[in-house]
Amino acid sequence: MFESTMEKINAIIRSGSTSGMSEREFFQLEIERWKNSEERQNQIIGEKYYRGKHDILDRVRTVIGEGGNLQEVRNLPNNLIVDNQYAKTVDQKTNYLLGKPFTLQAENKQYKMALSNIFNMRFFLMFQNLGEDSLNGGIGWIHVFYDNDGAFRFKRFAPYEILPFWKDSEHTILDCVVRVYEVEAYEGKELKIIEKVEIYKVTGVERYVLVEGNLLDDTETLSSDYMVLKNADGAAIGYNWGRVPIIAFKYNDEEVPLISKVKSLQDAINMTLSDFQNNMQEDSRSSIIILKNHDGTDLGEFRRNLAAYGVIKVRTTEGIDGGVDSLQITVNSENYRVLLELLKKALIENAMGYDAKDDRLSGSPNQMNIQSMYNDIELDANGMEAEYQASFEDLLWFVNKHLANNKMGNFEGEELTVIFNRDMLMNEVDIINNIKNSVGILSKETLIAQHPWVNDVVAELKRLEKEQQQSDIYAGTFQELKEGETDDDTQES
Fold this sequence. Notes:
This protein has 493 residues and is of the alpha+beta class. It has helices spanning 5-14, 23-35, 38-50, 85-98, 109-118, 121-137, 259-281, 299-309, 333-351, 367-373, 375-405, 428-437, 444-450, 457-492, and strands at 62-64, 70-72, 103-105, 139-146, 152-157, 162-166, 174-187, 190-201, 204-211, 214-217, 227-230, 236-239, 246-250, 287-292, 311-314, 323-328, 417-419. It is flat and about 125 Å long.
């Protein structure tokens, strides 16, 4: 059993095959296999469905034609309605767990201050978008790097661009990462799409261009180390992290995208709405015309004419009387409504979301009713947060190295707690009463952290301390005045 991808490559190269295989050829074959894999296709579908590009948009109206074969018809309404419940669920789950900036708790104030400068609002926005990547692709990716100005930066990679090679079966340690992405470039006056390939290893990043399945050296962007610093003589020296500077943030342990759980339900919702609209617009289909004593046609043409024109040719028994009758057809909208409600409810349950119009929210719901409604999304968020907490430890490893390298402090081994502030509907009255009842049992900091009106616990504690100091000053001054009055009264006596 190989411990790493590189060891596997070296073993293949050393094998006794006639032609052997180079490292570059190995990656060429792996990229080709991965590009057509079911895993990557699901990631692409998840991104497409989130953006509203659903399969219903490619549907055409068909009827049974000659020989019983389906054939396209263009004279019938063909509504292509997208009711994007999937995107709504993704936004719901993302904002529930990552809608509010996370809180950092650390005993070392210097460490916390240094982290607050790195995890700023720009990072929080990127982190929230990372949640969408994790849900749509099953796994999201953050690249840690230094930009051209030497600034410490983070960048998201799209899930369908990343081919990871894991060092362990649990997918916790990355051995190397291949990124395949497209860029637009002009060749003369013609705009073309170029496939770029970046292979991230512990020793640095290698850059190629993918042409007809072959990896060619990228002459525009050369391979390099992750960091380039100048020594005392001004010479540039390359450095590496000692790890692959890409961190995986998983939606779940199996890295399964959310779309895999609900695609069929989302398609059924779109189909139901589109079919209902088609039936409502088919005015000529609300009645089928029956022609008597006119020559019929074969069954294939009969089915096609019925679907396309709404006409049936028949012959009476006597074969004498002719005429035109009609067969009335009524579209039962109640059937569509019930089916649509069932489909949407099933999608919410399978996606482990919540219904904001739930009956449990009617009137003045207590906190228990609210928590009951949030039960499914809370369970799913627990699993996602557990994965994110583990990934955050890997992210902090790079952050701590950056702080140490730039003489901002050596914080390796410092304890840090990352608290994800979930955006849950709350009954504030119940929560505040529970906080009051816990005074003397729990610490002031713990109680303040649970208060629904507090965003920054440290800032709130400082305000309380300042108010207490001012209160003590006023109380002391009042006491001195009172004691002075007593002395004067005693002297007068």
